[in-house]
Amino acid sequence: MKEVTLKEIAQELGISITTVSKALKNYTDVSPKTRKAVLKLAHKLDYKPNSFAVNLRTQESKTIGLIIPEIVHHFFSSIVNAIIEKAEKKGYLVITLQSNESLELEKKQIDLLLDKRVDGILISLSNNTKTIEHLQKVIDHNVPLVLFDKITKLLNCSKVVIDDRKAAYDATCHLINSGCKKIAHIRGPLNPQNAIDRFLGYKKALEDNKITFDKSLIYTCEKVTFEEGYGFAKQIHTEQKDVDGVFAVTDPVAIGVIAYFNEVGIKIPQQISIIGFSNWFMSSVISPSLSTIDQPGFEMGKSALKLLLKEIKALKKHKEFQHQTIVLPTGVIKRNSTLNYFSKN
After folding, report:
1. Has residue 54 been placed in a domain?
2. What is the CATH number of the domain that holds 135?
3. Closest CA to 286 of 294, 296, 297, 274
4. Which residues span the domain enclosing 74?
């Protein structure tokens, strides 16, 4: 169907293009009769403003780019839901892309969003993001950038995170306080800041509780999956039979650990306690239910979008914007996979 123009509306009504444009924008110097005629005809002809022309005038695309590592994870889906819901209320569309934990794909997606002239970009980095040139490019193009969850400290931009080190410290202390004396940690890949901080939190909790750190109890995921959790649990059971606690970097990994120990008849938590991270929806329905760290995905999405829109607004008004780092609170959710749950019930 051919696109209807202002000129066609003007010609049919016998008025100027300027008058049509003003009527559609509800200018007061257009008579109510003329405005009513223009709106009626525009509706009849299904007139839609030329978004490209509007963008050129306003210097806004009213679109936001969002890049996440994976959408199937409950945590990230909560973030996406929050961003789309809140952005829509502010008149923005969200282009959502999934990097699949690939640096090369992440680079291509950044270029795509810049080509689309989005007003700003929200991104949680892939586990394989070891360079930041493509992210610096966003800043160099004067496009607002907000990092969330998986971030780098090397960029001068706004960020929304949790205190991963403290959360991991609390998770490990929960295991220690429930009686665990030999605790394995299934950590994330070596690169992402949140995986580093969770490892350091675990290590600090051992130190503060006078438990000797043993590097043989550290198992490193590549993809952070259920399958890796299952495989590492088998390895722990084979090589470290006296391990009585496991802190896993995410809930899917922890659920893999539970699946293996259930399969071989190891009683949870009587023989081994397990705690995860993120409060994935499956955590409360598996057997035994999984103790975990509550990671506020929806709040993280809301906060990241709010920061981005503030910077977009400041940029439009040519005002200086002070970048911020928001740290959201977390807490231990005690369920059946740790002994402490039973001691209080």
Report:
1. no
2. 3.40.50.2300
3. 274
4. 61-162+297-328
Asked whether residue 279 falls in the same domain as residue 211, the answer is yes
What SS3 class is residue 222? coil
Q: Is 164 helix (H, G, I), strand (E, B) or coil?
A: helix
For 158-212, the pLDDT digits (tens) are 999 999 999 999 999 999 999 999 999 999 998 888 999 999 999 999 999 999 9
Question: pLDDT tens for residues 109-145?
Answer: 999 999 999 999 999 999 889 899 999 999 999 999 9
Q: What percent of the chain has pLDDT over 90?
A: 77
- Total domains in the fold of the chain: 3
Alpha carbon separation from 323 to 56, 63, 161, 320, 326 (Å, rounded): 27, 21, 14, 10, 10
Query: Which sign does the torsion angle of CA 26, 27, 30, 31 carry?
Result: positive
Which residue is listed with tokens 């490892």? Answer: 199
The tokens 């299952």 sit on which residue?
A: 230
